[in-house]
Write a structure and sequence with these properties.
The complex is a heterodimer. By secondary structure, chain A is an all-beta fold. Chain A is built from no helices and seven strands. Chain A has a single domain, classed as Sandwich (Immunoglobulin-like). In chain A, strand 3 (about 45-50) and strand 4 (about 55-60) form a beta hairpin. By secondary structure, chain B is mainly α. The chains are: A mainly beta, B mainly alpha. The interface of A and B includes residues 56 and 71 of A.
Amino acid sequence: MGNPMRIRAAEKDGVTEVKVLMNHEMETGQRKDSSGNLIPAHFISELTAKHGDKVVLQAEFGPSVSKNPFLSFKFKGGAKGDKVVVSWIDNKGDTRSDEATIG
Amino acid sequence: MKKRLTLAALAIVAAFTAPAAMAEGSAADGIAQYRAMLAEGNPSELWELAGEDIWKEKRGPKQASLEQCDLGKGPGVVKGASAALPRYFKDTGRVQDLESRLMSCMETLQGIAPENFVKGKWGKGEMEKMEQIVAYVVGQSRDMKVNVDMSAPQMKKMYALGKEAFFYRAGPMDFACATCHGQDDKRIRLQDLPNLTKHEGAAAGWGSWPAYRVSNGQFWTMQHRLNDCYRQQRFPEPIYGSDVTIALSVYMAKTANGGTVMTPGIKR
């Protein structure tokens, strides 16, 4: 189970803006530790955002995304009080899912 | 949404639009713009979240939480506490900054030995937990005014010591803190250096640390920041929570008095 994300969602004029701050190492697999050994790659590989049952965003992440990634996106159709669920899976199979209420 | 977006690519495009705009303003404007873009998703929040849990968690040999820790506003009061630190504490008989105070609390309440920090490594073990607690505590003073009480004679003494340390030139490069932070409009590479001898500079510096550093993905406390200043001056690094670090904090905090607390901050 990954570390919790921080999600904010706000609706304005029919458009919902979602801001997600993820807590993840996002290790590229290119770096070496102090004893010269390669640090194995560990990064979020897939992210899905749902509004109710509807997928509003699906993304493939890779090792070029920074540590503790921040993602912001907008979609139409959200209403105040609705739930937005964001979940990711990383290359080691670890997952995390968090939700926020649109405000 | 069958077509998948490669968000990584989008993020890179976004990150490089800032330098393009830089051509019109100064380099500092570009950095300010970059910071504004990052501020929305300040990862310090992740440390704050973790720190709040650790604050309330029963830990250490004595299995106690820090909820009885007195940061100067009474046991367990976190709101606004860090804006008024460092201060003189009667129970320990010392002037303490946030981190040395937390170290005392952990020792007396939880039985966690100070050696965990004094001999610890930044970002590892107990030190990582300290950083998370610091993030939580300083976040509870966000947007408040720096309000350090200088009335105790011990504070005045620490201020005098801090001032002396700030201007003390030594080391292989004959550097003092004041060499870089004693004049206006100094910079190191593209970073503007605040003039810590004046209110504006001290407010900017003292008010925005501890902070998350984007370039290395680490959260730095004020003690860590000060140690790195010493490292850059080619001085031996001070002992964690030692008087010289607290004295320098008193010197900066007093000069910053009345400025806005922007912690936990975000840095390049």
